[in-house]
Every structure is written in C-alpha cells, then in structure tokens.
C-alpha cells in the first residue's frame, strides 16, 4: 500500500481531487521548429528563459540563446540562456505545452504540465502536451549539460523555469485584457483559461487575447505564486498519458508503421569488439518474405516484409566472425584486473583530515571488499529504430533520451546536414539509461543506407540483453577505524571500475575522477571527521558500459550502507541507533530515518528465519530511508515488506512519487536478488528473462511510501528508490541469518554459501 503526503512531525496523510487528460506526439525537424517563431500571427507562441550563469552546452561549449518574444528573434540575457518550455495558445483557446523532457514512464508529461498550468491558470485537463524537438540551444538542462533526460533531474531542472513560463504567459494575457478594457492590470486576474475583471464583471477567454498579447513585450521578471495558493502542485493527479496507454493509441518506437516499410532483424557479432568475416545467406534468401541481406562492420541485418520473415531469415544465416582479442575475455580475467587495480592508489575524490593518523589512533579497524556485477537494462520495449535514409534527407523514428545526439548520429552516418534530418521522438517503453545511448540508432542508419524504403530495425530480447551497454562491474575496498565507543574516526573508500563519464561526457572527467562513480560515496550524510575517497579507473576489455538507473548512488549506497551496518555490529550497537548518532549534522537524513523506522516498527525481534534491515541515502537532491523485511528459507530470499520515507523537497505530484518509488523498489529487488551479466569467451552468457530473471508479480512485497513534507527545492525521484534498496535487503539478510553479503546478486551468494 502507499501512504499519502506526511508531516514529519505527526505522520498524518493528506489527499485531494484528481484530474486526467490525453497526450499527443509529433515529429519535428530543427528547421520546422525554428519556423514556429513566425506563428504569432495566428496565435500566441511564447518562449521563456531564465539565466543561471554561463555554461556551455554538451556538444561544443557555445553559449545558449533562447526565444524571449513572440517574433522568433533571439536575444542574449546575461550572456547565457536556459532551455525553454514553450506555451502555445491558439485563437480557439487550445493550450499546447511542448515538454523539454521525454516521457519514459517517470511521469514528466504530467508533472511538468502541472508546473506550467499552475501559473498559467488553466485546467490541467484542457492542455495538450507534445515532445520538444531536438534543439540544445533551447532545451539544454544545465544540470546535465545537454538536451537529455536522465539523472533524476527533470523536476529539479523544471521547477523554476517552467513555473516562470506559465506565469509569464499569464502576465502577458492579463496585460492584453487590461489594455482592451482600459483598466489597471492589477485589478485583473486569471482563472481557468480566462482573464477576469471583478469590478465590472467582465471576462475574456485566452483564445480571444492571443493576437493582442503577441504584440506586447514579454516581461523579464514575473511574480510566482505563493505555495499556499497552489491548486495543482502538490495534489495527487492522474497521469495525462494514461488513457492512451490503456486504449493502445500511445505511440512508442516499436509502434511505428509507415507506407512500404520493411523490417530488419539484427544479428550482432557475439563478441565485444569483433567484426564480420563472411556470411552465407543462401538459405535465408529462400525463406518467403525475406527481401534482402545487409552487411555492416559488426552485424548482419535480414530485411523482411514482416518481422517473422526477418527473424526466420536471421536464424538461417551462416556467419563467420573475426572475434579479435575480445574472444578470450572471461569474468575471471575482468574481476582479477579489477582486484589488481584496486591495490593502487586512486585519484582523490575527497580528502578530509588525516586518515592515516586517525587509523593509527583507532581502537578497532574494519576492512571489507564489496563487488557488484555487470547489469543489463532489460527495458520492457526492446531496442528498435525506424529510419528512412535518402540522398536529400533522413527521418528517424525512435524513443530516445538524447534527441540532439540522435541528430548527431544521423549526421555522422549519412553525411547529411542537421537540418536535413528529422527526428520523430516517441514515448519510451522504459529507459533506465539504455536510451541515453545512440548505438542502435547508428546501426539502424547504417542498415537504412542500404535499403531504399523505410526500415524498422529491431532487436530480439536475446540481442537486446546480449548487446546492451552494461552497468559497470565495481570492486570496492573500504575501511574504517573506530574509537573506544565504536564511532568511526577514520574512513577510507577506494572505488575501482569503468568510467561511464569519461566516454559519455569527457569534459566532466577531471583529474582522474569519475564524478558519477563516486557519487554518494564522496558526500555522505554521516559525521566522518577523517575520510579519503579514491577512484581507480579500470576498463573491462571492450565490454561497453553505460548509465543504469542511478549508477553512482546505486553502487555506492549498497557499499556504504552495508558497511555502516558492519560497523554497528562491531560497535555492538543497534544499526538504527548507530546511524542516528552519526546524523546530527544532517537533519533531513535523520528525519527520513525516523519516519521510516517508526512506520516499520523497528526494534522488536523478528521470528526465526526473518530479518529487518535499514538504509539511508542522500542522492539526486533527495533524502531516503528504507526498511526491508525478508524471509530466508533454505537459501531462498523473499522480500516481504519495504517501508520507504522520502524527503524530496517540494512535491509536484505525490502519485508520481509513489509510483516511481514503488517501481524503483521492485527494479532494485530484481537487481539485488537475481541480476548479473557474466562474460565467457567475450560473450554475454545470459539470453532472456529465463536466465536474466525479473521479479514476478507474486513475489512483489508490500510497499509503503511515506512522503515527508518539506519546503526545500524539489529533488530527484526516478532513481533513488532503486539506489537505496539493496543494502536494506542485505542488512535484513544478515539480521535473519548472520551472513554478511558483500557481493551481489544475493541469490548466487547464498546458494554458494558465501558470507563473512
């Protein structure tokens, strides 16, 4: 069950009415988008910008500009411009909100419209939402340095500028009405898509004001609502995209259907870094419906009139591969290299006090090694991309978290100019970081160059899992020195693993430190006077690595919160009491710990074979605490209950928060108990959900989500639920069995009898 919005003092729930509507989708080219500035003659098109200091974009460091008026002219403001949310109102009064983030199940197609509609004073069920086009100048997220969706930043990024977008539009519309009525704008107000003048009883709909409003200057500063006056923000609200997902009209990339479209089943080289040597396609071409066989550098595509023909044709190919050096890579080699690299001094991510002297003065020393496996994304919607490549242009139909990088991939493969490439972005059937990558788009474009009609390139589930870009394998060495009271006086944590940042965003990889890999570890909420946090980069022999639903916080929280429990045991102290004694300087972390443990009834002993564990985390601008109950029977673990308390600052839509945390917990349980990708002879050994297991419905625990009231700026919510889960489970397993698990997944470690 889910709990409503809670006051940290009394835990009282609250609720409110709800609303719903549908959402739309469309394809945009950069050129078509720029033409929108000329649309003011038939409606009101407003762009809004908020300066937040000079910062270059992810592609080339150029200062960003933004439309600040209805005429499409660009003007600088303090030398740098934030990305925009556009509000389009036509003469009929239709309000279209162009959302600068993509929807992949996290609810931004509801929460961001709530921010705009709140200040614009329009009913949420009256708006239409649409994808933003690829345009880094207008839609760059300054928290991420590019136009992309990830890192649990959407609401953190949108909180101020999207509200200002709505407030600016409302202000201009009120000004237009006041001029028409020849009254002071201060005597007018907006409500439900109309401007009202109470003294005279006059009212006029937004649609009747758009022509006049388009001629007025756009104010640079506007007043925002006091939170006490919110009518949408903070209220439980049904998702705008739910109806079309229920009735099947929602368009994901896999749903694309085009005239004369054909289908391409991909057979990728099974070995990382390998290439195509030869292919015998004799039998494949004899299968009815097979139209063509396309060869590229490291894959073969069978083109069929339908998916069944393409899949049968792919299965009939006889392929020889040049495996290269990757053909000898094994897990033993990868882990051995990580273990060896972890012996080296690392790049310093944080250094406080004198750690070595503190260790020398410590009463007790605790050392541990933690390991976490490669993980696949296994999104519900397998990888797919539809392309039409022509001499004079290219269209790409895909669900992507990185629209501008998709355009860049088109330029790189086709040689066309950016304005010749049109991206049709779609709803995403799960992202989790997988669709931050453009490898599948690049492959589809290479295939499309050899096919003279639109072609949908799709991965089978096996190809998807075996040719993913994986959460890195991490190897952590962590040590603490305790004083006579069991309090840590020395703390050293060395993280060894692949650097996703060095590949994905090279400028952010500074002084040998991957800021994502050390996130959480380098900024703990605990009072640790002497600490040294290091990072050692060790790449895993051509195995491609990528972001996975909060890489840094997910991996770091498991290590840190498991180790904190180890220290509590060494100090012979209750794990919750131990944490409370270290959280005096972090009242928000202490607050969620108290809410979660109180709701979970922490303290009373559990029956034999059952255990209860806890975790605390500060990540993505939010504070989390989780308490997990588990039952362990003959090596099998069942998570029966998870209680979560979250302080994510100001709440936009509590229903979204609850849903994201619940989904994140289930995602996290799956990873903690079952998930790992292993490499043998350069190949991924897992193939499908038969051996890359997902938590089943009947295995899902009871989940309680307690949202703590806060007046702080909003924090992220899409990834923390996953990140905070694993240590609560492994700590509960220790409470139930006395076995300390320092390696994931849990299932394999218990079955192998590994513990300390």
Model description:
The protein has 756 residues and is of the alpha+beta class. It has 3 domains: 217 residues, Aldehyde oxidase/xanthine dehydrogenase, molybdopterin binding domain (Aldehyde Oxidoreductase, domain 4, 2-Layer Sandwich), CATH 3.30.365.10; 148 residues, Aldehyde oxidase/xanthine dehydrogenase, molybdopterin binding domain (Aldehyde Oxidoreductase, domain 4); 324 residues, Aldehyde oxidase/xanthine dehydrogenase, molybdopterin binding domain (Aldehyde Oxidoreductase, domain 4, 2-Layer Sandwich). The protein is built from 21 helices and 29 strands. The strands form 7 sheets. Strands 2-19-18-17-20-10-13-12 form an 8-stranded mixed beta sheet. The chain has a 5-stranded mixed beta sheet with strand order 1-29-26-25-24. α2 runs parallel beside α4, α11 runs parallel beside α12 and α18 packs across α20. The protein is globular.
Quick overview:
Helix content is 28%, strand content 23%. With 756 residues, it is an alpha+beta fold.
Keywords for this entry:
about 750 residues; alpha+beta; Aldehyde Oxidoreductase, domain 4; 3 domains; eight-stranded mixed β-sheet; five-stranded mixed β-sheet; globular
Low-confidence stretches: 1-42, 47-85
Q: How many structural domains can be distinguished in the coordinates?
A: 3
Q: CATH superfamily name of the largest domain?
A: Aldehyde oxidase/xanthine dehydrogenase, molybdopterin binding domain
Give the N-terminus to C-terminus distance in angstroms: 35 Å
- Using the CA coordinates, give the radius of gyration: 27 Å
Helical stretch tally:
21
Large-scale geometry: globular
Annotated CATH architecture of the largest domain = 2-Layer Sandwich
How many DSSP E strands? 29
Question: Beta-strand level of the residues, as a percent range?
Answer: 15-25%
Topology-level CATH name of the largest domain: Aldehyde Oxidoreductase, domain 4
Write out the strand line-up for the largest beta sheet, numbering strands in chain order. 2-19-18-17-20-10-13-12
């Amino acid at each position: 069950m889910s709990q409503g919005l809670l006051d940290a003092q009394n835990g009282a729930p609250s609720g409110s009415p709800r609303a719903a509507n549908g959402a739309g989708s469309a394809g945009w080219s950069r050129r078509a988008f720029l033409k929108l500035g000329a649309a003011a003659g038939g409606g009101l098109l407003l762009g809004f910008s908020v300066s937040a200091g000079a910062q270059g974009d992810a592609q080339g460091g150029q200062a960003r500009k933004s439309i600040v008026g209805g005429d499409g002219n660009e003007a600088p403001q303090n030398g740098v411009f934030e990305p925009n949310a556009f509000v389009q109102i036509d003469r009929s009064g239709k309000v279209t909100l162009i959302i600068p983030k993509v929807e992949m199940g996290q609810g931004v197609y509801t929460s961001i419209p709530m921010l705009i509609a709140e200040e614009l004073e329009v009913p949420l069920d009256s708006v239409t939402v649409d994808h933003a086009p690829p345009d880094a100048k207008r839609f760059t997220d300054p928290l991420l340095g590019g136009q992309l969706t990830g890192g649990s930043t959407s609401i953190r990024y949108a909180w101020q500028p999207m509200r200002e977008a709505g407030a600016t539009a409302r202000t201009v519309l009120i000004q237009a009405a006041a001029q028409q009525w020849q009254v002071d704008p201060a005597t007018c107000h907006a409500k439900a898509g109309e401007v009202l003048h109470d003294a005279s009883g006059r009212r006029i709909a937004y649609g009747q004001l758009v022509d006049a409003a388009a001629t007025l200057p756009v104010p640079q500063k506007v007043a925002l609502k006091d939170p006490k006056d919110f009518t949408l923000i903070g209220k439980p609200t049904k998702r705008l995209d739910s109806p079309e997902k229920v009735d099947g009209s929602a368009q994901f990339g896999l749903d694309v259907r085009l005239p004369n479209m054909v289908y391409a089943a991909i057979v990728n080289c099974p070995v990382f870094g390998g290439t195509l040597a030869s292919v015998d396609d004799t039998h494949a071409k004899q299968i009815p419906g097979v139209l063509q066989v396309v060869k590229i550098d490291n894959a073969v595509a069978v083109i069929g009139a339908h998916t069944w023909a393409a899949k049968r044709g792919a299965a009939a190919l006889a392929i020889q591969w040049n495996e290269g050096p990757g053909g000898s890579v094994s897990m033993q080699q990868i882990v051995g290299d990580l273990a060896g690299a972890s012996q080296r001094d690392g790049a310093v991510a944080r250094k406080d006090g004198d750690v070595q002297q503190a260790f020398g003065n410590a009463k007790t020393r605790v050392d541990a090694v933690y390991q976490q496996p490669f993980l696949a994304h296994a999104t519900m919607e397998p990888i797919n991309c539809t392309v039409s490549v022509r001499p004079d242009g290219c269209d790409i139909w895909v669900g992507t978290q990185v629209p501008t990088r998709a355009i860049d991939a088109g330029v790189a493969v086709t040689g066309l100019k950016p304005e010749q490439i049109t991206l049709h972005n779609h709803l995403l059937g799960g992202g989790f970081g997988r669709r931050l990558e453009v490898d599948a788009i690049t492959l589809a474009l290479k295939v499309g160059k050899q096919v003279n009609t639109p072609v949908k390139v799709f991965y089978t589930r096996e190809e998807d899992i075996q040719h993913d870009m994986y959460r890195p394998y991490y190897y952590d060495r962590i040590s603490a020195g305790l004083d006579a009271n069991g309090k840590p006086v020395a703390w050293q944590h060395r993280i060894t693993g692949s650097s996703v940042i060095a590949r994905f965003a090279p400028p952010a990889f500074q002084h040998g430190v991957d800021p994502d890999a050390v996130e959480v570890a380098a900024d703990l909420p605990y009072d640790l006077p002497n600490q040294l946090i290091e990072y050692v980069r060790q790449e895993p022999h051509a195995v491609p690595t990528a972001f996975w639903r909060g890489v840094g916080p997910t991996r770091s929280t498991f290590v840190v919160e498991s180790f904190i429990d180890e220290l509590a045991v060494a100090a012979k102290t209750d794990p919750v009491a131990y944490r409370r004694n270290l959280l005096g300087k972090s009242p928000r972390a202490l607050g969620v710990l108290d809410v979660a443990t109180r709701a979970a009834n922490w303290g009373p002993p559990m029956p034999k074979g059952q255990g209860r564990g806890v975790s605390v985390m500060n990540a993505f601008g939010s504070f989390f605490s989780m308490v997990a109950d588990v039952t362990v029977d003959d090596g099998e673990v069942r998570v029966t209950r998870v209680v979560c308390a979250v302080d994510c600052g100001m709440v936009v839509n509590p229903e979204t928060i609850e849903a994201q945390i619940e989904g994140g917990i289930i995602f996290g349980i799956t990873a903690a108990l079952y998930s790992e990708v292993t490499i043998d002879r350069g190949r991924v050994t897992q193939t499908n959900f038969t051996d890359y297991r997902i938590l089943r419905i009947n295995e899902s625990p009871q989940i309680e989500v307690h949202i703590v009231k806060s007046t702080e700026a909003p924090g992220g919510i899409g990834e923390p639920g996953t990140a905070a889960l694993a240590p609560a489970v492994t700590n509960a397993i220790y409470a139930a069995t006395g076995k300390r698990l320092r390696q994931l997944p849990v299932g394999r470690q218990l079955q192998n009898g590994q513990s300390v």
